Amino acid sequence: MSDPLLSVRDLKTHFRTDEGTVRAVDGVSFDVNRGETVCVVGESGSGKTVAAESITRLVSEPPGEIVGGEVRFDGRDVSEMSDRELRSLRGGRVGHVFQNPQSALNPVYTVGWQIREAIQLHEDVSDAAARERAVDLLDRVGIPDAARRVDDYPHEFSGGMKQRVVVAMALAPNPDLIVADEPTTALDVTIQAQILRLLDRVQEEFGTGILLITHDLGVVAEVADRVVVVYAGKVMEAGDVFEMFDDPAHPYTRALLDCLPGRGDGATTIGGSSPSPTDPPAGCRFHPRCPHAVAECRAGDQPPMNPVGEGESEGEGGHRVSCVHFGPGGDPSVVRGSNGDGETRGDANDVNCGGETR
Ligand SMILES: Nc1ncnc2c1ncn2[C@@H]1O[C@H](COP(=O)(O)OP(=O)(O)OP(=O)(O)O)[C@@H](O)[C@H]1O
Ligand code: NI
């Protein structure tokens, strides 16, 4: 198999604050292959945005610092790139779409000008040709009357239309990877579905890799090929979307999935609160809230990523979980329920289904 498009290994991004060191991302690994959609899920403050920003080193240093690990894009170590190379990577081969479209658009230029810039930064094309492509892109992201709207300023677009412009801008240089951080939370569900469909079409046409950060497990079910579940800066579970929804392994994942309509009782909340980002618990970071925690979960480091299924590969692509019950000598039925079909699920787990998992 060829190298993954993006490979993140044991990434650690910390912030030095007056309250202490915030271990926002604390040893996170995942891959994104060409043409694949990987979703990162986890509750607020778990480090999703910081991980996404660390890929092209967008985290402001200080207070942030990438203190460990490795990010490889198309085989190249991103930490070895010059500032010039990094700038051309961002908004070039890696397109970012952030939660707030406002921050991605410059209010003093027309959207057409900004998309042209995004094209011409990476390609030697004439103004006329770039403008034509800008119109075409606006049209493709579903902006009506694109030939006229191309000369409008960002403030002349509604929130949903603005986010489409941002997507058009990210797509302008034909990126190999799109990193989209909650690109649709601020949008109504119809527009959200349209944007997701658009990304899907682009992916099909160009084989683009997509890293999508979202709270919304409904979106995950719809678009993900693989899922990475993060909690307090650590990966709890990763794997194929079907395997993960069919046989969720980590108690945290199971609690999250219980919030989906038609699963669990849909009304539970995770008891307790997120751990302190400056002083996270030893052992599994989820243990203080886990109904299945045993002594082994409370000491040492986060458990290694154990294969979930029989004969499951230990590699980056397989279904793996950071839980001692799936480790050597462990008994997964403790988590799955004695008959293995998850019947005990939902009783002690209290995951907040409101707010974050809209
Ligand atoms: N500039 C900063 N200075 C200090 N701490 C920060 C900074 N940026 C992020 N953090 C901390 O890093 C942790 C991870 O934040 P992050 O924004 O990545 O979470 P998230 O998973 O994206 O959450 P959300 O779903 O709310 O967007 C949080 O504890 C946050 O407070
Ligand atoms: Ni975020």
What does this protein look like?
The chain has two domains: 1-93 and 176-273, P-loop containing nucleotide triphosphate hydrolases (Rossmann fold, 3-Layer(aba) Sandwich); 103-174, no CATH class. Helix content is 28%, strand content 20%. It is built from twelve helices and twelve strands. The protein has helices at 48-55, 83-89, 101-104, 111-120, 127-140, 146-149, 159-171, 189-206, 217-223, 241-246, 251-257, 333-336, and strands at 6-17, 20-32, 37-41, 64-73, 76-77, 94-97, 177-181, 209-213, 226-231, 234-240, 306-307, 320-321. A hairpin with a 2-residue loop joins strand 4 and strand 5. It starts with 5 loop residues before the first strand and ends in a 22-residue tail after the last helix. Bound molecules: adenosine-5'-triphosphate and nickel (II) ion. The site of nickel (II) ion has 3 residues, from helix 1.
Global mean pLDDT: 89
Biggest sheet, open or closed, and with what strands and sense? 8 strands, mixed
Uncertain residue ranges: 339-350, 354-358
How many E strands? 12
Helix count, DSSP H or I runs of 4 or more residues: 12
> What ligands does this structure carry?
adenosine-5'-triphosphate, nickel (II) ion
Which CATH architecture of the largest domain?
3-Layer(aba) Sandwich
Subcellular location: Cell membrane
Catalytic activity: Ni(2+)(out) + ATP + H2O = Ni(2+)(in) + ADP + phosphate + H(+)
Protein name: Nickel import system ATP-binding protein NikD
EC number: 7.2.2.11
